[in-house]
Amino acid sequence: MSLRELFRMLRPPSHWENGGITTVLYAYMDPSGTHADSPVLSISGFVANDVAWSSFDKAWRAVLDKPIWPSRLSRFHMVDCAHCEEEFFEGRWRFAERLSLYGELVEVIRRSEIRPVSASVVTNCFEQIPKEDLELLQLPENRIGTPLDMVFHMITQQIIKCVRQFDVNETVAVLLDQDDSTREEHFASFANIYMNAYYLGETFSAYGFGDSRKYTPLQAADLLAYGTHHLVQTVEAMPDYHRPDFPVIPAFWGMLTDMAGRPLAPNGEGLNLKGLQDLVRKVKNKEFLPKLAPKSPRS
Length: 299
Prior knowledge:
This protein is an alpha/beta fold and 299 residues long. The chain has one domain. The chain contains eleven helices and six strands. Strands 5-4-1-2-3-6 form a six-stranded mixed β-sheet, sandwiched between helices. Helix 5 (95-111) runs parallel beside helix 10 (249-259). The relative contact order is 0.18.
């Protein structure tokens, strides 16, 4: 299925015009640091309309198709690139070749009209607040009492903020990498609640899950999530963090710095212990994510 076909699938027929589709914003997201002992959980991706995604797709594939590489990868996966695993190991990619590919793909992102969005949570901060505060966050009406729930809420707010900066009447379809069935079910449940219960939740038009081998934007989201995961640990000065041998941060930081000066500047948010404590206060004061006001009955 092509990107255009995917866009049509994610949009109801009422949104198609003249046999095509409306210009819809899509957020491609990929999680990083989702294993149980990870100190940081990050979800990152990009928002763009279908025209920008089509242009990006061609540029990304053109880099992967270059004959100079030892092998043609079925997809770019950041962890495999950094550690020379899976297809990189099978293709006998050298360090310099992996670094060169990474740099070229970062450049594709930098040149494209796609907007980065990201949310990160320091996972152990949930263990450092009082039990009664954690239970308050875990109530069904709040549902932010775990790192995964929290990061879903945060990335959702970033996406909506980004979309409304394009156009207050615009809607967004979200595509998440389908590499984890449990997380798929969790996000599907979360998305349905958010779309129908929260203020501006109607900004979401649809969500779905895709194979990153087919959809290059998910590969870019993977690159962004991995870089964000390491950047947050660097900024937070985590005691057990060890910089990877593969130099992720220099090119990654350069890309973000360059994009920050544009209209499509990155949108990102992080949550540490102080941030979580502030959020508990807001929940207690009923300042957190106002629900939709009940609709007035028709006269």
